[in-house]
Amino acid sequence: MIYKLLLLFLLTINLDIIADEGMWEPYELPKLESELRKSGFTKGVSELSNLFEHPMSAIVSLGGCSAAFISPEGLIATNYHCIESSFLQYNSSDKQNLFETGFLARSRDEEKKSAPGGRVYITIESKEITNEVLAGIDDNTESLKRSKLIEDNKKRIIKECENSEEIECRVRTFFSGESYKLEKLFRIKDVRLVYAPPAYVGEFGGEIDNWMYPRHTGDFALLRAYVGKDKSSKEYSKNNIPYKSNSYLKISAKGVNDGDFVMVLGYPGRTNRLLTYNEIEYDVNIGFNESIKFLNQGIKLIEENTDEKSGTKLKYRGRKSGFENYYKKISGQNEGAKNFELLKTEKAKWEEFLTFVEKNASEQEAKYLQELLALIDESLAEDLAQRYYGNSTLISMAQRIYRNAAENTKPDSERKPGYQNRDQERLSNSIKRMDFSFDSAVDKAIFLNRLESYKNFSKDLRRPVFSKELFLDESFAFDKAQKKVDQIYSSNFTTSTSMLKIKDMSLKELNSLNDPLIAFVREIYEESLKYEEKYEKRNARRQFLKSNFIKLLRKYNNSVNREIYADANGTLRVTYGNVAGISLRDGSFYKPFTTLEGIAEKHTGVNPFNVGKNLLEKISKKEYGDYFFESVNSVPVNFISTLDITNGNSGSATINSNFELVGLAFDGMIETIIADYKYIPQARTISVDSRYLLWTLDEMEKASNILDEITVVY
Amino acid sequence: MIYKLLLLFLLTINLDIIADEGMWEPYELPKLESELRKSGFTKGVSELSNLFEHPMSAIVSLGGCSAAFISPEGLIATNYHCIESSFLQYNSSDKQNLFETGFLARSRDEEKKSAPGGRVYITIESKEITNEVLAGIDDNTESLKRSKLIEDNKKRIIKECENSEEIECRVRTFFSGESYKLEKLFRIKDVRLVYAPPAYVGEFGGEIDNWMYPRHTGDFALLRAYVGKDKSSKEYSKNNIPYKSNSYLKISAKGVNDGDFVMVLGYPGRTNRLLTYNEIEYDVNIGFNESIKFLNQGIKLIEENTDEKSGTKLKYRGRKSGFENYYKKISGQNEGAKNFELLKTEKAKWEEFLTFVEKNASEQEAKYLQELLALIDESLAEDLAQRYYGNSTLISMAQRIYRNAAENTKPDSERKPGYQNRDQERLSNSIKRMDFSFDSAVDKAIFLNRLESYKNFSKDLRRPVFSKELFLDESFAFDKAQKKVDQIYSSNFTTSTSMLKIKDMSLKELNSLNDPLIAFVREIYEESLKYEEKYEKRNARRQFLKSNFIKLLRKYNNSVNREIYADANGTLRVTYGNVAGISLRDGSFYKPFTTLEGIAEKHTGVNPFNVGKNLLEKISKKEYGDYFFESVNSVPVNFISTLDITNGNSGSATINSNFELVGLAFDGMIETIIADYKYIPQARTISVDSRYLLWTLDEMEKASNILDEITVVY
Lengths: 714, 714
Known about the structure:
Two copies of one chain form a homodimer. Chain A has about 725 residues and is of the alpha+beta class. Chain A has two domains: about 1-120 and about 190-275 and about 570-714, Thrombin, subunit H (Beta Barrel), CATH 2.40.10.120; about 360-550, no CATH class. Chain A is about 40% helix and about 15% strand. In chain A, the strands form five sheets. In chain A, strands 1, 2, 3, 4, 5, 9, 10 and 11 form an eight-stranded antiparallel beta sheet that branches. The radius of gyration of chain A is 25 Å and the shape is globular.
């Protein structure tokens, strides 16, 4: 787990670009042709910018992860760590632990359904809509009004766009609100598990090797997308048929060699390369450490409050590994900021930028920049306390149900985004997922612990009603808070079944339930609306001011002949580069490939380095099959390349010039993970090699059904 | 500190040799000519086997470390860690800490004298004397008689050999007593410190980087040997003049490149490559862990009982780093034994050997082998308890004084080795060294703690009188032991001055002192003699049986066209090989060179990674002077090569085909340190590069006096 996206923090842009970096939108590629040629790309560049054509039409999103079609019958390749929660955790039980056994469907009827809400998204359109989103707005529009207008415009655009049940539309923000695009997605609702190796392959090395290289993780899994017989998107049904995509990727058994051209097509979630210096400084000096503290506490809380016997350990497996993943990543960023002297280099650039602003910006532009920086400083302090507010899945879920009932009193078009008709299914699925990822006692313990931290923030940083209801202000009265929390958790609605029953109740019905959870939610309802409005207002102003900043930044960069590109925002992007080793420490060199022998070398018999006997035997007997790679004298397991990826890219197809799948990107290296903030030439992307995937399917699993279905290029 | 020899354990041989391994005696080199040529050696091979000629005549021993003459005026280059105790610790005080400041004598009268007993040994002869040592002995000689005869023969040989005061002779055991050689050494008694860098250069990386690569340690220092005006060896005197050696090494400023031929001339202390399988199995399954426990306890004891303020921390610095060095080494061997499957491979070889023995050995030979294995098993168990016996420097010193007085009642030729006239000076120097490396309270604390462990061994493994005197057998009476120890340490003879006063007293005078320390020593005297005799008897038998084993082993090896070479035993040896990087873990490669930039990279401002500003500035300004090496685009700091070295090789000159000094060997790599037991092709020797030494002297120290004296080859 690694480059899977976890929407834990609302992080927030940064100067300077060089030619060989970047996560490009497909339409931008033609202008990069000469750069692509230099890197070794041989095909037509225009092929890459058409979303409806191969290879782009083979690329999909799983929501948080990336993936690709690899057969005409809807077969999808992605990372193992992208399917752990929705497929392995969901389909495991006391009797059958799929993490231990792995899973292979030898025929289609053996395939396993996904947890509620398991989806495949195919981008079928991406359209510039800045004018539409900002219609009716000018520089003088008051912030709250601005916020409301943008919200209404977006809702209208989405409503118009979502002309069928299988289409999902999203308005995506680029350059912090300087521009907007409409993303039209075909949403497949029936997704099934076809193959996952045992965890000792799929997450070999576990948390210890996470974000590390040399790496030996078989981070691959196969899913299949199903649709109705009429080819429309349908929920799971036995009558559904495999989705036939416009195109699919062939899989290379030749793979790549050192120096070869590669690119990654996927959905990177978020980068922070266009931040103001204030934001960078805050993250480096305060934010990173605060996040580390918060995440570490979260990991400990789960460890202390879950166990194997009660099944809670399995339920919180996904949450915990999410925390661990970000804990390690941000710890790496913290180190990287020092090693790559982030503050020093960014401050120097920022000062150049400020000098440019002084000479070239209008008085108004300069004023806006000042205001932005003040606003950033103000909100950063509040955000810290805000992180410890809430943290109860139970209460959050009840709040969503209560809010949903409140919004349902209005016509659909006037309801808040998230509570419209289009959102009802998602809300139900969220509730259903509690079955395998929620436990009331564990949730309560986590909430209480976070509350104790929240209580320590000064009064003006805390929500007054919430604090009062929970007795947070009375000194030595934390036992009262505990009692109150006990009472809230004694609710009748602490399971998915009971919650689904009240999901569609009217506000009146909810209010008459006389339940401590609903009562508490009602008590803090008005306050939460007030805070929502406050943040909306501030964010609207911030967005306006940021787009002004971006304009200045672009002017400045153009003045020194540089272009800026948009930060990652969950939209389809292309990054290209070459297979290459790297020296990150004097005297030491990371080779571009790792091999099967490295697995045996790391195997200790103790998790996460405890592979099966069969695997060890094949390695010791050198049973390389058709996947032997002379350069490494073995089967390559993982390889590194100069690709520029981030969280959300997990599962992305790594392809060669012929658009053949040569790997699946899954991780970066802890030493250069600060690259989210600043392009680092030494940064490398770790991919699992297609030859290891094929070797596993062929030599280990004898999965002839899959090998027959996919197209292997020898 | 690394490859300095620490005589802590009496360790004890192993099958199989391949052509490019080995620590060869100089006389053996001509037969290796074709191998030397293959490695790239271009000079005449015969030049290497003459001890009186260049380059061999430039190679010296410091007793525990190796070194080499680098000027016609007695200037010697060795490792920094070889001079820490006798020069830096000895010459440091509250006012001047030479570890912090480093030291450079800008003129000869500034040079600092060594601690008592600081010596330089030059091997001037090496002679086969097996028949002489074993004169009067046959296979049926009873063990104790055998022991006594060998002892008497050795004493006579040494007496005949030591025909002048400046000559020291040693009878060296080869192949576990199968053969003997007489080593004749010229002993220089006036050795002075010329140059040591600050500890942040000399032991950069400290314990953290010890036994590790990539490495950036400036592990070099310079001494000067002085003799009387008549060229005879004299103790320190202002009138002494620099020793003029037969030859000296020029220093290469061109250094080596990847793949270049190199060799190391030095004094390796001990290897265990000709062990029986029983011994290997014991070490791997029990011995390593027991040593780790013992050493770890020792480190903790010193940490807990010493402090900066009282000066005890400085006094125990050497002892502690010795413990730490071996703790890390044996931990590495413990790991390496698993990683390189020592038991598996050695057991297979051992079984082949046993099959050979069954078919080819006489009944008597086979019987001897059986007896050897039984004897080994028996003694290994006792050795463990034995390790915890003693451990009091104070008591040991008093025992030596008491024994000395007892031996003095006999004619010199009949005294026990170690107590003859030739040994008196060494005994006095041992006492004098207490001044800067002993503290009565610390010594007592260590003794008491070790005693508590000793007490836990079963009664039959402990010395009865010693145990009774210290109340070790009475349960819950350890407080009595403590009281007794307190009483012993209340002696009047706990300093070097007081001990020197009683050193030459007669036994009668000692007995009349009425001192608790002397009283205790007298109480256990008879018992210690009894145990000495017991061990002598057993060792004599073991040696006899081992030489039988070696004969069988040689026969076996010859039957499969292999030769065996003698384990390292502190005699002058030559190892040759090439500069080469190494991949020890899949996906990762250690480059052959590290550079100045790596120092800045590791610098954290916290010890042991806390170098001076001046150094950092020169690195950041790329002030490489004449020592820039294009291949690494900087000044190389350390380099690795395929040389086969071990403890005792520290300070050894690493030279090229032209016999120019290109480095000083100082360490091995933790991953392959099991090489003491079995030749590991991946093992590498770490040398500090001559270019870093020259850069330091030139760019950092502006040591024009030294640069003028040495011969630098550009």
